[in-house]
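Task: encode each sequence below as structure tokens.

Item 1
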Amino acid sequence: MFYIIVVSAYVLMLLGISVYKSRSVKSEEDFMVAGRSVPVYMLVATLVCTWIGSGSLFGTAGLTFRTGISELWFSAGAWIGILVVYMIAARVRRIAQYTLTDLLETRYNQVAKVLGTVTIIIAYMVIAGYQFKGGGRFISILSEGSISPETGMIIAAAMIVGFTVLAGMVSIVSIDIFNGSIMLLAMVVTLPFAVAAHGGVDAVISTIQQTQPTYLSIMGGHDFFWVVGIALPTFLLLMSESSMYQKFSSADNARNARRAVMGMFVGVVVVETLMMLIALVGFAIYSDDARFFLADGSVNRAMAEEIILRIGFEQLPTMIGALLLAAGAAIVISTGNTFLMVTSTNVTRDIFQAFFFKKTTAQQVVWIQRACIVGIGLLAYLMMSQFETILEMALISYTMIGASLAPALLAAFFWKRVTRIAGVCSIASGMLTVITITVLNSVFRDSETTILGFSIPMNTDYIAIPAVVVSVSTLVIVSLVTPRPEESDWKPFMNES
């Protein structure tokens, strides 16, 4: 009961802030990019909270439980991506568009914008949806099973949609300063208590060495292709993460946009490393717990994804456990808010405003977007039955965004030779490749087959490799066989000043 009281109090505090901030929303710019007035410290917090979501709390934890410290390759893909983003953050803020798809339209054409919008809508609904799924598991654990994960998912979905509808980006950046702080504090405090729960560092290492010694190896018994396959989705997602580009546009100036990216780098590295270590300690604690393993001895992937929350609920002193569970609520809410916000922004601007409601007032745009948030939230909820684990959903959605948009986006900022038609073809080919593999995986889930040399269903740890090969090859080949672009096409993206 104490855990429920603490988590409920924290969520109600966030709700109060959102209600208060909703009164300041006067225009679409306030709702979409917080009036372009976000200071650097708030931007750092909201960028960290954007990335540290259920994909980290559940997906990263589950991957660590079945691979050990080699999970860091998954996280490191994002870290490298953040450093690349640092190089272009000021340019993005200077161009000052609302969304990533605005950038695609500026460099390529409206077809690229529409394809980018479709890609983002599909992938971000999956990402928003697994926040609901993670929230459902969280609520089930918190209620000691009295609320089922399915019912918990409905509650989580309603809560996240409600937060987002209230005040949009103003609300998100306002509550993320609290969410970011509690995430970091909880992970720092949890690790030593989790280690102590198993008898200390030596006991943790000894248990892992006796049960799964490869868990202490940086390769974890895997080969180079696994490393590439697991790191590519997070790297490419960072390159084309629409919510971050939208938040760059929320910065009060271009210099602070870059400073915020470096702050994000430090915050994400620290939090994800701590999460990995906590999950690794969790493996030692639960290495002989039948709940975490199947009859054949393999890891129960769905259960393994709950390892951090299980530690908080079952292994830590009450006050520390309550802090960790409040952080879990912060993680689910903050990321769910962001991805609903970005998806609805794209639908509102790139579809409704572009094709149906060309003459609308600022207040009408805000209400259209609020309606989109509710509709997208409902669709995201309905999609959840198609996936078994949060990590599977994360890898597919990350690859959908990364393979489709990252090559064209990076080329816009770093390759003068890329042509408009090449960008369009690259986006389309990446998106279709991921959709095709996902559909084939679903069709052949219970019976393995081989198509074009690939084993189907394909292990989602490797799904990024064929998608990126197709997208990048298309981008390069089509660019080289079509006429060079005009200087006016690429110059705004190359100029640092």
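Item 2
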Amino acid sequence: MKVAIGQDSHKIDYKNKNKKLILAGIEFEEDFSILANSDGDVVLHAITNAISGITCKNILGKISDDMCNKEGIKNSEEYVKEALKYLKEKIVHISISIECKVPKISPKIETMRENIASILNISKNCVGITATSGEGLTEFGKGNGISVFVCLTVE
């Protein structure tokens, strides 16, 4: 068994009304997006980092920057798929913790779990997602960004 932690955070962009907010590959109907070169999917970025924690092959950074800026690949699901190419172990569970004031995560948790399970080719019952506002104590809880921590277990 191996366990890895992945983390990512991004600022919310309240000015760009043309870009959609995407979390876990799911589009949210909000009037803001994430400040990022890619689609800014912090959930999939944190998952990518957790996989990199197992494989020791960092995807976010030069590889994802080249995919995004040179190849025009903005969809963060492609970064997860790139990370999975190096994973030899079987994913047995993933736990995801999201901190943000906005958007409300709870109404989309089941859809997010289904999509993550599909991307990782695991059962939905192996995908746990929790969300908190953090009582407004951090910049994320104050509505200035979104932070995600992932704990990935493989065997």
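Check on item 2: Residues 2-154 form a domain with the 60s Ribosomal Protein L30; Chain: A; fold (CATH 3.30.1330.50). The chain has a mean pLDDT of 97.
End of task.
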